[in-house]
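Dissemination and training. As part of the outreach component of the grant, students in the summer workshop were shown how a complex can be specified as a set of sequence lines and then modelled as a single object. The example used during the hands-on session is reproduced here so that future cohorts can follow it. Participants entered these lines:
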Amino acid sequence: MAEAIHPIRSMTPGLRILRALVVVGVVFIALWLGLRVLRDPNTFAAFGPTLSKLAQALVALILGVGGIWALFYAANVIIEALPTRATDFLRPYVFVVPAVAVVGLYLIYPTAGTVVGSFTEVPEGASPLTNYTQAFTDQEVILALRNNLIWLLIAPAASVAIGLAFAALVDRIKNESLAKAFVFMPLAISFVGASVIWRFMYAWKPPGQNQIGVLNAIWVAVGGWLVDLGLLQEVEPVAWLQEIPWNTFFLIAIMVWLQVGLAMVILSAAIKGVPRDLVEAARIDGGSELQIFFRVIVPTIRGSILTVFTTIAIAVLKVFDIIFVTTGGNFDTSVVAVRMYQEMFRFRNFGQATTMAVILLVAVLPIMIVNIRNLRRQGVGA
Amino acid sequence: MTGKSATLRSSGGDRGGWLVKLLVILIVAMWIIPSLGLLVNSFRTSVDSSSTGWWTSLFHPLSTQWTIENYQSVLTSGGLFDALINSLIVTIPSTIIPITLAAFAAFGFAWLKFRGRSLMFGVLVGLIVVPLQLALVPLLRIYQSAEMTGSFLGIWLAHTGFGLPLAVFLLYNYISQLPKDIFESAYIDGASPFTAFTRLVLPLSVPALASFAILQFLWVWNDFLVALVFLGTSSDVAVLTIELASIVGSRGEAFHLLTAAAFVSMVIPLLVFLTLQRYFVRGLLAGSVKG
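and obtained this result:
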């Protein structure tokens, strides 16, 4: 393209503008046609269901991937068609304005709308705080907030503790990377997929039938053994996800199972970065392995521990999928994000929904600030 | 973090006693068993699946009747094939569009001078802290009045908007560190910033682009909430997570189908994860702040 620049600059202004108009016209017509085809699933119906779906996918990929580049190219052509001074002035904006505009439309405007809406979307003449007073007196909302708090107290701490312990232990064995890969793998799995995996782990069958869930199989086997020993009257399989209040803890276990990999990877890297002299010195001073771990290694990597902790805390506050898919928020397991979804789509109460979102923001913000400060202190970039 | 000295690793190797090994094996087992159960059960018949635990088949592999019928069933009548294609239609542009916009913007912020630069950059990156829930209600209203709900374009742009602050932040960190000389010599040769960007910056930024691409790909592929709100559950557009959740709703006790469907939804992210693990780990820490 470098060779092509000069010929364009040497064109007459009229020709340059004509070229720009043609390019822009072609790009827009192509995008418009492509989007129309994409919206109508029956465009390729003649090919049969499978081929038509694949054809649709192909159009989508060409459109989505090519479209964004075509738009940048067209913008550049327009800029080049202008007088040199205008070109130089506008050029930087071609690079940054698209991103700023998208973020303005998708984050700035709606966030402002949500915050304002939580105060203004109240019945005629009611106080602007109506949504908030209503939220904090609603038993369901209080329950959701309480559950979020339980999640926040347990999930990050448990993930960090297990991840740190595993990282320290695995550092001492031969097949380290293999062992780590297994614990790390759930990070690639969606919350919905993990929910299905754990619904199966928690599966319940009536007493007398074979249990097909791992947890109930163990429960019934161990319980039966205790009954045989006379230590227990009887044992019944447990519907883990309906057993209030313990069900919340069984849902938290799913999150921990997913997040330990993240904690382990980051903390393992941090442990390997602890200077060896430091550890050797402690060893010479007669410190036991446990003392070295808690008094030397943990303090040295506390920055990483804080990062992992806050990162998981943020994910936990926003948790939605796991609860929505497993219990739908029933059996006292609801959280703020699930409540918000229900306000939006079940009750159509957008005022309450925005209030839930603002509550989330207020909860996340301080943790986010700690997280970013800490990241910056560690000098973490890409 | 610290120290030029050798790390713990080099003293490592096999220093663990039996207790260490036992604990590692215990934790690894707890992390494998749930996924293993899913995989094993997805190849069992519906009768076996509902009457005995999956481990019975694992202990008696020869007397078990293995089957791929569950996969055939969910892919054809279950609509999971369409959902798989829909997930691809959603995920690939939702990865490429933000990464393109972010790369252009990161270059602009790092190497071009213009008015409002630091303000725009500050606002853009500052938005990392906003949870996407804040955007849902007003955006849904816009989408409903513009008839954008249930359209692929709509969800591409939504994922783009939500992913951009982090993408710009990560790519800026990388692109701003490129050596200055390469641009100067390119400009002397008569290249425009556009050319310098496409010919020099993009090829040099591949590691950063790859890190973010993997992160965003997995994030979008595994997303449930954004798809549920903006794309919906109609089978023309429903993605894998949505379809899987709807099977949980309609056939929640049919574990032979559920396990197969869940595995279908996990195949591609697992492949991406296994082949590109290196980039993935690198992007993880930096990406951990995603909103």
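The radius of gyration of chain B is 24 Å. Students were then asked to discuss how this feature might be tested experimentally.
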